[in-house]
Amino acid sequence: MAKQKTAIVPTREDNYPEWYQQVVRAADLAENSDVRGCMVIKPWGYALWENMQAVLDAEFKKTGHKNAYFPLFIPKSFLEKEAEHVEGFAKECAVVTHHRLEDDGKGGLKPAGELEEPLVVRPTSETIIGAAFARWVESYRDLPLLINQWANVVRWELRTRLFLRTAEFLWQEGHTAHATADEAKEETALIHDVYADFAEDVMAMPVIKGEKTAGERFPGAVQTFTIESMMQDRKALQAGTSHFLGQNFAKAQDITYLGDAGKLEHCWTTSWGVSTRLVGGLIMTHADDDGLVVPPRLAPAHVVILPITFKADDPDAVLAYCKQLAEDLRGQTFAGRPIEAELDTRDMRGGDKTWQWVKKGVPIRLEVGQRDMAEDSVFMARRDLSPKEKQGVKRELFIANVAGTLQAIQDGLFEKAKAHRAEHTRVVNAKDKFYKFFTAKNAEQPEIHGGFALAHWNGDEKIADQVQKDLGVTVRCIPLDGELERCGFGDAAGEGKCIFTGEPSKTRVVWAKSY
Amino acid sequence: MAKQKTAIVPTREDNYPEWYQQVVRAADLAENSDVRGCMVIKPWGYALWENMQAVLDAEFKKTGHKNAYFPLFIPKSFLEKEAEHVEGFAKECAVVTHHRLEDDGKGGLKPAGELEEPLVVRPTSETIIGAAFARWVESYRDLPLLINQWANVVRWELRTRLFLRTAEFLWQEGHTAHATADEAKEETALIHDVYADFAEDVMAMPVIKGEKTAGERFPGAVQTFTIESMMQDRKALQAGTSHFLGQNFAKAQDITYLGDAGKLEHCWTTSWGVSTRLVGGLIMTHADDDGLVVPPRLAPAHVVILPITFKADDPDAVLAYCKQLAEDLRGQTFAGRPIEAELDTRDMRGGDKTWQWVKKGVPIRLEVGQRDMAEDSVFMARRDLSPKEKQGVKRELFIANVAGTLQAIQDGLFEKAKAHRAEHTRVVNAKDKFYKFFTAKNAEQPEIHGGFALAHWNGDEKIADQVQKDLGVTVRCIPLDGELERCGFGDAAGEGKCIFTGEPSKTRVVWAKSY
Fold first, then answer.
1. What is the ipTM, given to two decimal places?
2. Structural domains of chain B, with CATH
3. B144 preceded by cis ω (within 30°)?
4. pTM score, two decimals?
5. Is residue B474 within 8 Å of B512, Cβ to Cβ?
6. Which residues pair with A73 in a beta bridge?
7. Distance (Å, whole) CA A388 – CA A290
8. Chain B residue whose CA is closest to A128
9. Which chain A residue has its CA at the smallest distance from B38's CA?
């Protein structure tokens, strides 16, 4: 059978990493800049991020958080206060040492005005926000303090990939302070849920909610909770984390409050974040060999209308019909947002134009020519179906059903991603089978060619280190109580024995290669 | 007469700069951080900025601009490409020279991993965005290219003041490329109008639209257009600028397009921006000796409801009445936004609570006790009136009229600011009167104690330099055609003679001290 042509070359099967880069390029989402590791987020990619921000920001506000903004720069001495924290970030941070450029005598410029204390461009803001919290919190009446910041951060990564790992990225970072450990833990769990619901309901990206092992925790945290999602190459993506920081940062930074007994106590703090990495997750969850597929909840345009006027008897009438159609669609809403209908009247070849929108992943494409107008209908293609599957629909019917169609696409994408995860997740009960699961290269048996392994483990970090060395596989998370059942892996739930030592284990954990 | 007590000490009259700091503190808008010159924007201040962003962002999108995001860092060599530009920014920029911290052998950390080329933290992004435009633009079909970015920027200012001048600030920067000079000029003018309308209609801050003189232009621009507003101390605040960059940056960065005649041409570019400085302008336009006064269009809360339960027979009933009131208010809209009603049930002294909200500048304050509930009414205070002026209003009537009341407050603030500007703007026709206007210290004659002087000038920069040296006064702008009339200074319009030389002059220009 002849190989089917695809808009993206290579295909996922042929070369997954290169396919990813090509989807980013074809959908015009982002590009590498002239600054090592820093990306330019192009309008279509940025619009995805803006839509993510809008939904998350509303959730944060609904749950009582307020936005604020803290300095980009962190004095070196601040970072040094929490030992594990600085250990985690010192190796990859941008350091500002001077505050001007001056003539170097050779026609160029050199750094001048050396700072007394170097400043680090924030890799995360626990320390600088903690210093503010120490000023703001006086008594128990000031608690809980629930703050979020939308910001750019910099981690000097050597090997970068657009959206997934870049030296500079955009994110939100929540920081909260509480009077008791329980309240801080509740906050951590609340946000963990916000992230999971966002991933599944809005991004149509199924996740497993769990706790990180000690080896994978945020530097300085007592507990780190994560949502882990399976990408199409079966690797895991850590899509959001929520940290219970205990009193570690509060003690390092003197965040104290006067309790009702009149005693000075240290606060209990949390931090949590998601980043532009989610755009990478979106791509790797839904894109196919024809380009991006955007879940309707996040689509910068829900519907694109392509007037076909070149062979029309009356091009102006077709255009007017399309304009009215766009107007009527904008009067409809989907998931609380007005329908975004884009009318593309650019003067270019129809085929090229169609494929541009396919590659950008717009959920619904309408092609409208003279005949469609005459029949008071539109020609509709859904991005989640084959590009060849188009159908004529009566205009009024299409408009009346558009929100339902979008929801069907949204639901379908989620179900498809869940099926993919189910297909490549295995309950593994023996070490040899575990190693085989992650190493078998047999093309006849793609079902055992890696993915998520659900296996018992005694919690020994040395064993985890050995597995990582051998296979490049890590424990992605220890699933929360009931989470395996919620995700459809009920048969994996319950106690058992460590597959490496035979020791008792309370729950299977999720093992995978990861981004 | 005994001096009236005020919530802010000192008052504007007693010490204006200190009054400003105290308003920022009392309204809990921002504070200095531990990083020299960098501020922490606190939730109430950030909410003002978010509301500004929402309105401006919608305007930019409505006029065809798309948001994108470009790197925080600019290679030193990029900045060097445009001579005037680097001259303008090299003296005050944060320079990144290293990419990690390592053990200094003394228990601390030192910068390590020196970069081959130093990176500058963006003071503005013409050069890094220009490099992207050079990649993106190929033919005339790609034009106009209309991009906006919301971002943080850093200019290493030595003397800083919260919101007005800080080392790091938040802003939007628009960058556009066009095929012709005329189109670029139209864009510059369009945005100039967007800014002016925003300032007047949304911020209730009257502005004069004009062009900057050569000495006050953006480094590298051909023309800079500005909106200038008079603060309560009669100094001018430059509140937004829109630059026609000609082909300066396009030539420095090779931003070219293939014209329809098949010839490679340089683009014509623009850039434009407003920043968190606007929050400073808002404060200095409307705040009074009792604290901030927020124009309703930008208010994070339009109405605050203070239940007075401590002397109520049935505190729960009063609270339920207030909750229902808040719900009903949230069902109303003002200027396209749902009414934000804040119910303050904190356990603290009523007087303290009331004054907190006065100082924060919430447009409408409702106090509701047992008797008000019994009478199905509310006790209302408007922030634009004296704190003593409160009035009982029937609940239904208040709700029905709330949008109208807010609009009346909005309009009143604008009129008051216009009247202030009118009072302190003078047509000046002679040099000695000009000098006297800016130097007279006679308390009996406050009307000649500085402000805006509308005076003819021959355009000679040497004269302007001398005036700046003598008086600290500069030309704020050359008003656009018809602008003096629009601003109510019709008698100042028309040609005349330079007050310094007697030479002919086409228009009076605006002179003032400035921030």
1. 0.96
2. 16-70+125-286 (3.30.930.10), 296-420 (3.40.50.800), 425-512 (3.30.110.30)
3. yes
4. 0.96
5. yes
6. A121
7. 12
8. B34
9. A71
